[in-house]
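Fold this sequence, please.
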Amino acid sequence: MARPRICSHQRDENGSRSSSDAMKTALAVWTTSCLIFIPHVFTSTTHLAVISPQDPALPIGSSLTVVCAVSSELGLAASSLYWTLNGRRLAKSTYTVLSPTELSVTLHRLNGSQQQSGDNLVCHGGSGDVLAGSCLYVGMPPEKPVNLSCWSRNTKDLSCRWSPGGHGETFISTKYVLKYKLRWYGKEKECEEYNMGQPHTCYIPRDLAIFTPYEIWVEASNQLGSATSDVIILDILDVVTTDPPPDVHVSRVGELDDQLSVRWASPPALKDFLFQAKYQIRYRLEDSAEWKVVDDVGNQTSCRLAGLKPGTVYFVQVRCNPVGIYGSKKAGIWSDWSHPTAASTPNSEHLQSGSCDLKSEEQNTTLRRELKQFFGWMRKHTYGCTNVSIKLYDQWRAWLQKSQKTRNQVVQSGKS
């Protein structure tokens, strides 16, 4: 008898076949995957038992009648046979004896397959021997993939990701293939490096052209149908992202208790490219999860954070957006944030003393308000952090702290 068909492994969702080692391992797992089972009692090449239809694919909610026909050579009566689905014996009320050698089973309102490689439907002899098997593929055809986007790290490669259409679950093995080609010429190609850890992503590591747009799309298919995403058109230079800025350093600004200086290096992979980088800084308190973002850093590789809390630890990160690589008119894509770098502001002696008189406090409040207004004007009329504003602010802060210390000393000596 030919080997009873119970189910072979299907292609996974990215098109690769299971290895022979994986098949050997799967042979030990009866109820969790479809596999080939060869009873030792059958050795002839004649089909002594047959299931029909064999390996059907059905939409969810369908009903199905399957027939197991055994050869008279086996000497088995149809009434002695029974059915299992994924190892669970089906109720006799679902059976129908069609002839002395034919037993059918009817399944109503089928749910989605419990495993993407198909559900095991098996016809057994009265003693439990496997006579024949079939796989049931119960699910839905794929819907149109959506949200296809791509990016290139340092112009050297291309990565793309997408989302399955609808709810994404088809219940049966669904293959997704990312395809691409040069827009006006060139042969259609398939992406081959799919990331198993991040479903619905693919990586093209080499042999990419610049200054020429690509057409890119995703095709999804299974036993019940197929669907194709919208085609996106892009030039590699328009979707460049960089590595995070390296060598991020955060340090104190002398004894100024509400400032930190941040400096970093440009992404080295882009040093030979013509582009204008934009940078962003974000920072947060040590005991807070909320980040504050500084958007107006521009193309500089250093900046000053002001208005911070004295005696406090801050975490700082920087990221880069390469703008206009080789004259591209589109904005680049923000890099990942750099690793957090920590630094603390100095303790404020005059805040710790807590002995300022009311008039001094009112005067300080007025000065701070005026300074905020001054910096607001500076930010509107300049780009990013400016040396002029920092210098003026440093002078004012140094004067303020010195005057505060002098007043505190006078108050303390007067009390003594």
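Residues 263 and 302 are 4 Å apart (CA to CA). The helical segments are 20-26, 349-353, 358-381, 387-415.
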